[in-house]
Amino acid sequence: MPVITDCVDCPLRRQPLFVPMSDEELAFQRRFKAGETHMQVGQEILSQGQASSAIYTVLSGMAVRSIMLEDGQRQVISFIFPGDLVGLHSGIMGEARHSVTAVTPVVLCTFPRNRIWRLFKTQPARAYDMTWIAAVEEHFLGETVATLGQRDATQRVAWALVRIWRRLVALRMETGGAVPFPFRQQDLSDALGLSVVHTNRVIVRLRGDGLAEISGRRLVMHDHARLSQVARLDMEKDDVRPIL
Amino acid sequence: MPVITDCVDCPLRRQPLFVPMSDEELAFQRRFKAGETHMQVGQEILSQGQASSAIYTVLSGMAVRSIMLEDGQRQVISFIFPGDLVGLHSGIMGEARHSVTAVTPVVLCTFPRNRIWRLFKTQPARAYDMTWIAAVEEHFLGETVATLGQRDATQRVAWALVRIWRRLVALRMETGGAVPFPFRQQDLSDALGLSVVHTNRVIVRLRGDGLAEISGRRLVMHDHARLSQVARLDMEKDDVRPIL
DNA sequence: GTCGCGCATTAACCTACGTTGACTTGAGAG
DNA sequence: CTCTCAAGTCAACGTAGGTTAATGCGCGAC
């Protein structure tokens, strides 16, 4: 039987990426958390079209959020990392409009759906944070739309790699100039609206140019500054965000 | 001096598209609303990079939400219609990451930023609605990402036209098989990641095929079912949403 | 009226990316 | 150790959509 992480000991909330929690918030959080769920690689945390009974914070592991279109094409909407909130809008709107699939083993904090309303009633600060999280998410999606709409293949791939890199660095998951990269090239291309073949062409070229490379399920960043330039991302500090 | 609409008389909240408000909510809303702002065509309701001091609900008129990229390209993130909430995440995150530009004269209900926190403290139901709105918005953005990532030009244009059509029909703005369409083809192409030239090719073809046409600042829908099919949008009822 | 201007429309040409299909590599199963 | 299967890589060729640039057209200014 695995031991459940007490929120007090949660390794995530101390990360500089996240807004610190007050003692009172922490106390509420411990009661709000109903338990933990463990998912295997390939398992669906959320399934498109299914009602979902809970929202989750990813404690560890990674996943992809994707929509399957009627004609069988898949769009990856976003990559999911530790600290991300999953299922907010299925929780609010009733039915999941997308799937979330684990690409590594994933541990989730579970917050039952029917407690969300209590959170809004008794914990306005936490409710505010939830809206804040939704706003951050929306901001990223806007950036994604801009990337898909206006960038060419090279810029898109560079953008995705830099975004993933920065997020994992902020989570202190960088070791020896590399971060875990459990996504397949197929996931990347489904996220960027490119064919796998062309995504691969770009990745090979970026590697040849000494900018970054993917090898052994890890992303090795050789030249963050130059790759950011290719991606047209400035070097601005990532904003902190709340965590549930 | 223009007369300010009392929330009690607000023509929007009665529309079937929106979740009805309780008397108590309505009472709060009247105090929450600080006033109205009128914008001219071309004016910016929100400017990318500027701090914004308020959030707004669009009472009437239309706008586009867009990002200007460093190299001068513009991505239209979404089209804004009456009932939409504008500036939620600039309000929460401090600085606007995108611009919102009026494409018709626009009337806005103004909610000062510093009252948002009071809303969360005293009106959990309204706070919940705000999160709900953010979730609906996020859902649409996800659909946009999927459209830009996986659809070809014809499907994209059809998708945009159907989305706009349905929203304006839900707002009861349809007359004689047509709705107002104040957007330029340039706006459409910036939203869909296409060149104006190609967008025009598609529009001309859709018109020739008797599906829909844009003429005289109006969108005439000749065959909603068939166009929806082209857009790969099913005929599902649009969900209701709250309004602030 | 007619001038000026932003927007829609069209045609000719070109390229970035998709498609198909074959080959390689590597990791886990037995 | 080697078999298998999924993922990565690569080349050849085709096409959707970009680019450029010219023309048409309504509409407000005066």
Give a concise summary:
The structure is a homodimer of 244-residue chains. Chain A is an alpha+beta fold.
Task: Describe, in plain words, how this protein is organized in 3D.
Two copies of one chain form a homodimer. Chain A has 244 residues and is α+β, with helices and mostly antiparallel strands. Chain A has helices at residues 23-32, 88-93, 116-122, 124-150, 153-170, 185-192, 196-208, 224-231, and strands at 35-39, 44-46, 54-60, 63-68, 74-80, 85-86, 99-102, 106-112, 178-180, 212-215, 218-221. In chain A, the strands form three sheets. In chain A, strands 1-8-3-6 form a four-stranded antiparallel sheet. A four-stranded antiparallel sheet of chain A has the order 2-7-4-5. In chain A, helix 3 crosses helix 4 and helix 6 packs across helix 7 (196-208). The longest helix of chain A has 27 residues, at 124-150. Chain A is globular, with a radius of gyration of 18 Å. The first copy, chain A, starts with 22 loop residues before the first helix and ends in a 13-residue tail after the last helix. Chain A binds a DNA duplex (30 and 30 nucleotides) through residues 152-153, 184-186, 194-198, 200-201, 203-204.
